[in-house]
Amino acid sequence: MARKNMIEAIRDALDVMLGADDNVVVFGEDVGYFGGVFRATEGLQKKYGKSRVFDAPISELGIIGAAVGMGAYGLRPVPEIQFADYILPAYDQIASEAARLRYRSSGEFFAPITIRTPCGGGIFGGQTHSQSPEALFTHVAGLKVVMPSNPYDAKGLLIASIEDDDPVIFFEPKRLYNGPFDGHHERPVTPWSAHPASEVPDGHYTVPLGKASIAREGEAVTVLAYGTMVHVALAAAQETGIDAEVLDLRSLLPLDEEAIEASVKKTGRCVVVHEATRTGGFAGELIAVVQERCLYHLEAPIERVTGWDTPYPHAQEWDYFPGPGRVGAALHKVMEA
Question: Which InterPro entries match (predicted)?
Fold first, then answer.
C-alpha cells in the first residue's frame, strides 16, 4: 500500500474517476497545464487531454454555472474553486441552482457536481486565503458538505462525492495538504510543517458520506471536530492526559447524529472544535444536536473552541488558529465542572 499525502490522495482520486468514467471532467483556474496552485491536478491534463481537464476563466460564478449545465446534461463535473475564500461569487449558482435542480425539476434533472476547494489557515495566507466558510453551505438544503482530515479519507470521500448524484462541496484543509499535521505546534516550524504521509490504497474505494469515524477512543469527554481540528484535538488530548474521545465528523451534511449521540452518551461531556469564526459557526448546530439528543446524559455544559469573530489575521495567525492549548483548556473546564 502506497504512502501518500493529501494532495497525492486527491490527485489519485481524480485520476481513478477520470479513468473510470468518461463523463467526469475536471476544470477551474490553473488546474490544466499548471496542475493547480497546490498541484492537486498535476499531470492529469497530459494524461486525459484538454477536453477532460481544462482551465477556466477567473470567474467563480461562471465556473459553477457551467458545471450546473454540464451536470444537468449527463456529465459529472469536478470544478475547483482555487481558494474557499473565492467561493462567494458562485454562491447563488450553488444555492439557487445546483442545490435545487433535482427538487425544482421533480427529479428530471440533477446536479452531480463535486466542488473542490482548499480551506482554512495555517499557511500564512492572510485574510483572503485562510477562511473556513463551511457553515454557509450547511444551511442550504440539497447540498452535501464534506471535509476530510487525512489522505485515506480524502481519496475515499472524494470518489464517493464524484459518484454521488447530488452536489457536494468538498473542502480540503490546506494545512494538511503536504502531510498529516501532528497538531502539537502552536506555531509551525515551516509554513507547511509537513509530516509523514498516510497509507492510501491504490485504485477505487469509497468512504461513505454521512458517516463519522472515531479518531481516538476515550471515556471521559467527547470532542467533535473535522478537518485540521481533528489533529489539534488529538494533540490536546495527549498533552492534557485527559481520556478524550475524538470524533472526526468527516461529513457535515449529511451529519452522523447517531455517532455523536453514542459518543456523548458514553462520556457525558462534550467539546466542539472548529477553525471558522465563532458566531454562526457549525459548532452551534452541533451543540444543538447534542442538547436535543443527549441532554440528560450531560454532566457539564458543552464547550466550544473556534476562531475569533474577526477577519483572519496574517500577523497573528497562530493566535487566531485554535491550537491544542485552547482545546486543552476547554477539556479541563468540562472535566472540572
Answer: THDP-binding, Transketo_C/PFOR_II, Transketolase-like_Pyr-bd, Transketolase_C
Provide the percentage of residues in the chain whose pLDDT is more than 90. 87
332 catalytic, yes or no? Answer: no
Count of alpha carbons within 13 angstroms of residue 274, beta-carbon side = 25
Helix-helix angle 257-267:282-294, to 10 degrees: 60
- Rounded Cα distance, 221 and 190, in Å: 32
Handedness of CA 226, 252, 18, 45 (dihedral sign): negative
Third-level CATH fold of 213-336? Rossmann fold (3.40.50)
Cβ(162)–Cβ(114) under 8 Å?
A: yes
Backbone phi and psi for residue 215, each to the nearest 5 degrees, phi listed first? -80, -25
Helix intervals (H) in 148-256: 151-163, 228-240
Return the CATH superfamily for domain 2-200.
Thiamin diphosphate (ThDP)-binding fold, Pyr/PP domains (3.40.50.970)
Give the three-class secondary structure for 206.
coil
Q: How far apart are the C-alpha atoms of 193 and 214, rounded to whole Å? A: 25
Provide the pLDDT for residue 318. 78
Q: Which of 129, 139, 231, 332 is catalytic?
A: 129
